[in-house]
Amino acid sequence: MKLKTILLSTLSAVAIMFGTLAPATSTMAAESQVIEIDDIEVTSEQLSDGVTVVLTKNEDGTFEQTVFCDTDIASIPQPMATADGELEWAAFHLGFNDWNDDTGRLYFTISADEPMSKVKGNAYVQSTSILFPATYYSDSFDEALGGSMNTSCTLKDNVDTGDEDKVRVGFSSVVLTTVANEKGYFSNTSQVVER
Amino acid sequence: MKKYIVLDIYSYVSKNIIDLDQLEDIFHKGINDTKYVVNGYHVERYEQGCELKEKEKVVSNLENKGRSVAFIKECEKVIAVVGYKER
Q: Which residues of A touch B84 (CB under 8 A)?
């Protein structure tokens, strides 16, 4: 399947902030940068069961987000992890798997180049109906990460989806806080997952 | 032999050293075999009431969620905390 990388549009109002408010004129790069990362925790199975957002810091200090919803792992930008106390990249994946019969498992995986303190946000599982989507799961989460570098947490292991073959999984207002109290903000996004 | 489902993994080492899939594999092979050691890693169940030297908050959160807890250790250093339940 051809890689389909969705680049978020440059919105100065939605600049990525790390501990301080970004200037109103800050913009995200319009093009995806290919940088080496060794620590992205994403597998092909994860990419096919949900959506992944990767934050990378540009040389000018602005931040870029890339949304991945395909299975070409080799095409994911990979920045070098420096472990210098400064958050330079992070990846958040929301997935829906173990989809047997009528229930599935909703989970997230988060990785960063710095020890992580906590992550919070909202996650949901809905039908794919455009006009009146049914909600199978919708709740906030606030998870302590205890200084970990790569973490996977189950939000709910038995989300009842009835007889659906496709659902939309998405998240909003996800914020990562590192042990050094830096923050990474992931833009809201969603992805249709098929059984 | 009991079988388990891994619901949460908190890894304190870089993915370049060992990734979550590898940690989960070590957990499944070591949770029922106290003698299982691979590349210096082994699995220890957490028993309630045991004194925790580290990772107290993570363990406490997992217990509050109803998970059983295990550690994956390299020598005596905790490199991952696993939340699991019986299948």
A: none
Q: Does A17 touch chain B (CB under 8 A)?
A: no
Q: Which residues contact B60 (CB under 8 A, 6 or more apart)?
A: none
**Integer angstrom CA distances of residue A169 from A97, A174, A192:** 11, 14, 6
- Rounded Cα distance, A63 and A115, in Å: 19
**CB contact, 8 Å: B64 with chain A?**
no
The torsion angles phi and psi of A21, rounded to 5 degrees, stand at -70, 135
Q: Kind and range of the H or E element at A47?
A: helix A44-48
10-residue averages of pLDDT along chain A (195 residues): 37 36 31 42 65 84 76 47 77 90 92 91 94 94 93 95 92 94 91 88
Q: Cα separation of A187 and A11, whole Å?
A: 11
- Whether residue B40 contacts residue B18, with contact meaning beta carbons closer than 8 Å, is answered with no
B72 close to B82: Cβ distance less than 8 angstroms: yes
Structure tokens at A116: 């992580």
Q: Do A148 and B12 touch (CB under 8 A)?
A: yes
Rounded to two decimals, the pTM is 0.79
Cβ of B8 and A146 within 8 Å?
no
From A24's Cα to the closest Cα of chain B, the distance in A is: 35
SS (H, E, C) chain B: CCCEEEEEEEECCCCCCCCHHHHHHHHHHHCCCCCCCECCEEEEECCCCCCCCCCHHHHHHHHHCCCEEEEEEECCEEEEEEEEEEC
- Token output for B78: 């905790």
Its ipTM equals 0.90
Q: Verify whether the Cβ–Cβ distance B8 to A152 is below 8 Å.
A: yes
